[in-house]
C-alpha cells in the first residue's frame, strides 16, 4: 500500500498562477475550478480584487502547467446592487455535463445575507447563463456530479448548522437544476484532535471510477496559530452516492511548501479542481494555496483508489 504522504507530487512549476501574473491589478488568485475544454486546461480562478471582493476569471493552458492565457475580464462577478452577491463570487467548481453539452459552474455568491450556492451554465467559457441561487445561506462548497443518478442531478454542498455549528458535506437532488430537495448527509467532520474535526467541504466534482465516486475534500483543524486546511479523499457508492465506502484516515496533502504556509491565510491547501487523463491515469489536483496563489499536485488514480480500498477507514465517519 502506498503511504498517504507519497500519493501526491507537487508540480515543480508551483505556484502556477499568482496575482503578479494577472493582466489587471488584483490582490490574490486562488481556489480554481478546473476542466478540459477543446483540449486545453481551463481554470476558473477566484480572484480577489484590491477592495477584498472576489470574482471569477478564466485562465487557459495547453499543458495545464505553463503558458497560461488569462482573460482580461471576469466570467462571473457579483452584482453590487444585489444583496445576495454584492460581496462577490467565490470558490467555483466546474462540472462537465455531457447530457446538457455544457459545463455547470457551482460557486459561492456572497452578500450580507451570508454565503449561498449559486449555479451558472456555459458552453464556451466566454458567457454564462445564470441558474440562480440553488441553496440559501449559509451554504457553500457545492459541486454537481457529471451525470444523473437514478434520474436526479446531484449537488454536493456544505450547510452550516446554526445550532450545533457542524459543517458537513450533504447532497441534494433535482430534476431541473433549480429546485433542490431530498437533502441527505454524506460525510461528516470527525471530532477531537482529528485533522478534519472542525469542518469538511467537498473539493472538486467527484470522478466516477469502477470502485465508486472518488471524492477529494478539505478538512480543517483549529490550532492556536489558526486553522490548517488539508486534503483527504473518499469513495462513494456509484448508485447511492450518499453512502461512503472508504475514507482516508490520514490526510493526503497538507501545507508544507512555502507558498502553502504563508499568504493571506496561512497553512491552507484548498482543493477545487481535478482533471483525470485516461491515457496516463494521471490526476491533476488544482488548489488554492494560502488564499494567495494557484498550485497543482499530481497523483495516479489507480494508486489513490488502491490506497483508499486497502487502508482507508470504512463507514461514513458520522461521528457527530
Ligand atoms: C474557507 C473559504 C475558502 C478559503 C478557506 C481558507 O472558509 O472561505 O475560500 O480558501 O476558508 O481561508
Describe this protein's structure:
Helix content is 5%, strand content 47%. The chain is mainly β. It has one domain: Tachylectin-2, Chain A (5 Propeller). The longest helix is centred in the last third of the chain and has 11 residues, at 301-311. The protein is globular and about 50 Å long. The two termini are 30 Å apart. The protein binds beta-D-mannopyranose. The site of beta-D-mannopyranose has 9 residues, from β6. Residues 31, 90-91, 229, 265, 268, 270, 288, 291 line the site of beta-D-mannopyranose.
Compile the SSE list and pairings.
Elements: E1 9-10, E2 28-37, E3 40-48, E4 54-61, E5 69-70, E6 88-97, E7 102-110, E8 116-122, E9 129-135, E10 139-144, E11 153-159, E12 169-174, E13 181-187, E14 199-202, E15 207-209, E16 212-223, E17 226-236, E18 244-247, H1 258-261, E19 269-277, E20 282-289, E21 293-300, H2 301-311
Antiparallel strand pairs: 1-21, 2-3, 3-4, 4-5, 6-7, 7-8, 8-9, 10-11, 11-12, 12-13, 14-16, 15-16, 16-17, 17-18, 19-20, 20-21
The structure holds beta-D-mannopyranose.
Beta-D-mannopyranose binds next to β6.
Amino acid at each position: 500500500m502506498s503511504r498517504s504522504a507519497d500519493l501526491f507530487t507537487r508540480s515543480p512549476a508551483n505556484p502556477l498562477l499568482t496575482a503578479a501574473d494577472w493582466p489587471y491589478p488584483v490582490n490574490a488568485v486562488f481556489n480554481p475550478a478546473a476542466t478540459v475544454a477543446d483540449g486545453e486546461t481551463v481554470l476558473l480562478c477566484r480572484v480577489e480584487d484590491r477592495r477584498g471582493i472576489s470574482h471569477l476569471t478564466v485562465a487557459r493552458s495547453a499543458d495545464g502547467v505553463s503558458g497560461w492565457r488569462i482573460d482580461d475580464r471576469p466570467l462571473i462577478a457579483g452584482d453590487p446592487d444585489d444583496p445576495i452577491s454584492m460581496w462577490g463570487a467565490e470558490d467555483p467548481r466546474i462540472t462537465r455535463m455531457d447530457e446538457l453539452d455544457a459545463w455547470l459552474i457551482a460557486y459561492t455568491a456572497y452578500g450580507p445575507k451570508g454565503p449561498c450556492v449559486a449555479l451558472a451554465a456555459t458552453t464556451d467559457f466566454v458567457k454564462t447563463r445564470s441558474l440562480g441561487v440553488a441553496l440559501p445561506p449559509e451554504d457553500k462548497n457545492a459541486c454537481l456530479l457529471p451525470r444523473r443518478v437514478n434520474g436526479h442531478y446531484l449537488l454536493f454542498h456544505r450547510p452550516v448548522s446554526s445550532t450545533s455549528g457542524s459543517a458537513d458535506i450533504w447532497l441534494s437532488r433535482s430534476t431541473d437544476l433549480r429546485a433542490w430537495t431530498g437533502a441527505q448527509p454524506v460525510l461528516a467532520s470527525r471530532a477531537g484532535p482529528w485533522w478534519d474535526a472542525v469542518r469538511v467541504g467537498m473539493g472538486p466534482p467527484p470522478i466516477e471510477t469502477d470502485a465508486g465516486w472518488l471524492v477529494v475534500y478539505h478538512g480543517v483543524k483549529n490550532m492556536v496559530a489558526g486553522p490548517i486546511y488539508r486534503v483527504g479523499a473518499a469513495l462513494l457508492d456509484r448508485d447511492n452516492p450518499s453512502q461512503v465506502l472508504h475514507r482516508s484516515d490520514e490526510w493526503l496533502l497538507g501545507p508544507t511548501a512555502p507558498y502553502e504556509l504563508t499568504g493571506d491565510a496561512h497553512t491552507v491547501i484548498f482543493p477545487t479542481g481535478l482533471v483525470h487523463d485516461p491515457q496516463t491515469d494521471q490526476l491533476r489536483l488544482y488548489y488554492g494555496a494560502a488564499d494567495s496563489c494557484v498550485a497543482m499536485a499530481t497523483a495516479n488514480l489507480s494508486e489513490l483508489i488502491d490506497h483508499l480500498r486497502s487502508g482507508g477507514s470504512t463507514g461514513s465517519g458520522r461521528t457527530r
